[in-house]
């Protein structure tokens, strides 16, 4: 059961309550560069981003928020640190939400109260962000803790337990994070302001999980999930899937961001895949493909990657399978809305469990995308399968006798 929280609104997107878990990201452009920022937001919208955050480190960035807001159609969040005037200007510019860490605002509570009153007057939401690194966290978590041995008076040896020491330290840090978040919330409540959600992020998965669990037991404000500074595409995706997955499976979380050292457009598919895997959102392509192994007689890796890339903008729920052997291929392909079961230079195309046709390897891409497009609304179909069809070829020819050969050339 999903934990029931009070509901707030960020622009036209509901957060908490019975609303779907919303997926967010953050731009990497200099916000003052309006053209680049708007272009990146549009790319994020194309792959399903529902709320976008921009950095506002200086007044020059705050002053262009109004112009950016006019040119996008998803809610805009201003990320504010240190200078409260940046938050006040962002609110004047019409931002939908401000994200602040009250612990690093100059003049602390006094500055926080100014922003709260301005947000309350304009109907602007606020995310209170508490990061483990911002509340004086010791850096011991990242250090190797060695087993220590000492001789007791009775002559026996006593060994330390580094895992237990880390657990105690993690719990203490998580408790401090939660206590601080609840204190900040109380400042807002004293001003009769409640349009708040809260994040308690850490780059250490278990610390973040512990903090979110504790907060969810003591407050009904919506929770924004994230593992901060999670890492590159692979490490960040794994850490985020593990941490966010644990919490979401327990019913904790109302909105999330997967933070990656990658283009922000790469964060959105990972976030939706986490939600789809837990059956919390049914949006976009559920993609099934087999690992390449010694049974496979097509270049399933290249074909699968190319198909998935070309379906990245699809928002209609649909399942697509790309399989490369006779063991699991036919079954998985029949179960999908559109499936390919390939082998020995040719492949069978399935649509809703029925065999549509058999095609040679150089037509895999065209055949799969054409069938997918036939199941999509017209706007999405034209992106997936443009007029004139797919001319490119994915993959290389592969047989057990010949190995991997040269790329297939399109037929004349």
From TrEMBL:
GO terms for biological process: isopentenyl diphosphate biosynthetic process, methylerythritol 4-phosphate pathway; terpenoid biosynthetic process. NCBIfam families: ispG_gcpE, PRK00366.1. It comes from the Bacteria. One of its GO terms (molecular function) is 4-hydroxy-3-methylbut-2-en-1-yl diphosphate synthase activity (ferredoxin). [4Fe-4S] cluster binds at residues 290, 293, 325, 332. Binds 1 [4Fe-4S] cluster. Converts 2C-methyl-D-erythritol 2,4-cyclodiphosphate (ME-2,4cPP) into 1-hydroxy-2-methyl-2-(E)-butenyl 4-diphosphate. Pathway: Isoprenoid biosynthesis; isopentenyl diphosphate biosynthesis via DXP pathway; isopentenyl diphosphate from 1-deoxy-D-xylulose 5-phosphate: step 5/6. InterPro entries: Dihydropteroate_synth-like_sf (IPR011005), IspG_bac (IPR016425), IspG_bac-typ (IPR004588), IspG_C (IPR058579), IspG_TIM (IPR058578), NO2/SO3_Rdtase_4Fe4S_sf (IPR045854). This is 4-hydroxy-3-methylbut-2-en-1-yl diphosphate synthase (flavodoxin). The lineage of its organism: Bacteria, Bacillati, Chloroflexota, Ktedonobacteria, Ktedonobacterales. It catalyses: (2E)-4-hydroxy-3-methylbut-2-enyl diphosphate + oxidized [flavodoxin] + H2O + 2 H(+) = 2-C-methyl-D-erythritol 2,4-cyclic diphosphate + reduced [flavodoxin].
